[in-house]
Design goal:
This protein is an alpha/beta fold and 229 residues long. The protein has helices at 3-6, 19-43, 73-87, 107-117, 134-143, 159-169, 184-208, 221-226; strands spanning 47-49, 58-62, 66-67, 70-71, 93-97, 125-128, 149-155, 172-178. β3 and β4 form a beta hairpin.
């Protein structure tokens, strides 16, 4: 018997992933699914279109990109919904919350100017220049501006997360869907980001109950705006 026959070549072993890799994958799937359920449950029954929105003292408008000092499609849709709510008597004051030093420009100035152009009394508008993300907007709305009941306006795919975050920090919040008026690829990209990244991050924010990135002493500017006859 020759050597080859006596010692046959063994087939290569299949590579197996370490168990810890599979464990991480399963854990990630559980966390992701849990975040979707958590946000859905927290916002259930608290979203509507502007025409069906309940009354609240304040409407919060979340910032978004601007161009040449003017709101782009996403932000314009949110601001138009806020105007509709104020004109319908569903809210009395507007808290515009965004990044005053954003990459596209001063979101607060752009939002305020647009609302004034649409006929909203500037005295009823309060700007939060440090609403750097949705959680920070909600946290600062209650801790800096004393907002305890509000309508929060954004696009439909974003509304449940915004409502869940605001209610988590203690605001009796209802979400209002706004139009987009943007190109379909842009809408798809933002919706995908919402489901893949933003919702899980929001669940972690709620779990950790972190402070806003920028905290400020409490002030009464919203209460002053609400006192305007």
């Amino acid at each position: 018997m020759d050597e080859a026959a006596a010692d046959p070549v063994k087939p290569p072993r299949k590579r197996r992933w370490p168990r810890w890799v599979a464990g991480i994958a399963v854990l990630g799937a559980v966390v992701y699914a849990g975040s979707i359920v958590w946000i859905s449950v927290a916002s259930a029954g608290h979203t509507s279109d502007a025409a069906d929105a309940p009354d609240a003292p304040v409407v919060i408008v979340l910032g978004a990109q601007i161009k040449d000092g003017k709101p782009m499609a996403f932000l314009k849709g949110r601001l138009d919904a806020a105007v509709e709510l104020v004109e319908a008597g569903k809210a009395k004051a507007v808290l515009v919350s965004g990044d005053a030093n954003g990459g596209s420009g001063d979101e607060i100035a752009a939002m305020t100017n647009y609302l004034v152009e649409q006929g909203i009394d500037e005295r009823r508008i309060v700007g939060d220049p440090y609403g750097l993300d949705t959680y920070d907007t909600c946290f600062r709305a209650i801790h800096t501006y004393g907002v305890t009941k509000a309508l929060i306006v954004t696009q439909g795919y974003h509304v449940p997360r915004a409502v869940a975050l605001c209610r988590d920090v203690g605001i009796d919040a209802d979400g209002v869907n706004s139009d987009c008026g943007c190109a379909t690829p842009t809408l798809i990209k933002n919706a995908a980001r919402e489901w893949v990244l933003a919702k899980p991050k929001a669940a972690l924010d709620m779990l950790w109950s972190r402070d806003a990135k920028v905290t400020s002493p409490s002030e009464d500017s919203v209460q002053v705006a609400l006192s305007i006859p």
